[in-house]
Amino acid sequence: MSEIDILKFVKNYGTHHVRMQSFNELYVPSDEVVTTYTITGPTIALEELSKIKIIRDLKGIEQFEVLVDGEVIATIDYDGTEEWRYDLSVHDDLPEGKRIVNLRSIGDGVNPNLSNSLTYYAGHAPIYGVSGLATTIPTLTRTDDSIGMGFEINTENGEIRSDFNNEFPWSECQIVEDEAGKFIKFPEMWFRVGVNSSYQITDIAVSPTYGLGDNWYKVDPFMYACYGASYENNKLWSLSGKTRQASVTKSQFRTYAKNIGEDYHLLDLYHYTVLVFLFWIEFATTDSRSIMTGRYSYSGTNGGQSKINTGYTDNLNTPSGYELSYRQMRYHYIEDFVGNIMEFVEGCYLYGYGSKNYVTSNPEHFSESTTNMQQLCYSNPNSSYSYPTISSIGWDANHPFMVLPITHISNSSYNTYFCQRDNGIGNQFLVVGQCYSYSLNNGGVYSLRRLSNTTSSTVGARLIKIVNQ
Description:
Shape: globular
Low-confidence stretches: none
Largest sheet: 5 strands, antiparallel
Helix content: under 10%
């Protein structure tokens, strides 16, 4: 079937009514089909950090105004070719930092509609990073724009004051009241990941755009449930004041998530890794217990070995912190990021010592088998220990953010390297975190346990929602 480019016939911005009818000498003319076509303004994209490209516009437009933060800074000529670009870096007098850029068409009788908005970082896009992820010491070294930044933990009320709250990406996160409950929406992010010759991650950084080098990886916007999943009417929810659902298989949890809508799925390894990276960057340590423990066995002033409801952190006045009664914690409004109960993780099918795991970041392929999954380029740890402390984590550039341990050491104190336990290797299904019935010294934000998909009163779920742009 031939295609017709409606833009050939559109001479102005706005909404246009399109009527189509087919004719053939052998047949009676078809009925008219009436539809609408809207072009509100030019559509532009940014290439190579600073170069504007026009990817859709009216035919015959030859001039544009360039607007930065709503002010016209230049009038430019456009030749209509595929190769045309306009480089914003020629304007070295722009104030440094985040700038909003638009184009506006100039022409006789043409509506002066603005293009879509682009984000351009004049001078320098901020980069926040840490190094030292392949060393023995859990304290990480701040790099790039993280140098000099920090945080304070108020042990009297559990609140954390952090320099990062006002910086990207944390400053651009949004609380969303969704049909499934409360979520936090993360913006588009770019991560720089340093890797040694053994596929071990050595350093990480986050930025609103990519920088120099070829080791930058884009993360599209997504929504992460603020509360662990509760269950009602065959669906999962992210709500305060609810009992966290447990004692359900991962496949059952998956069905309950799908019952909400096609954009929802369970927490997966890809998005969990992104949040773990952000935690390490902000707090510059792999020993998450030194920051917040979350609810664990006999924690808090009320002690006890019990699962608690969602919402105890609602009274905190800071994005991150913990309440004192049970040590229930939240990380940037994500309650129980660690603690209370553990959570199933989608997107990976795990094998035994020295074997390569199978992964996928595509929610359509989440299942209880390796179908439509691919093997990672690195293998599981080779040795079994009584106290398996994670000592290095892997990176596969073809499967970014599918990060799992490469090596272990034996350390009953769990106070070196990643200070976290990875146990149950040989079982297929991954769960993360800490829970109300376990001791503290081996649990944290990157504590991994592997199950054979049995139901457990200590394992629950969490929702992720894909953001359609």
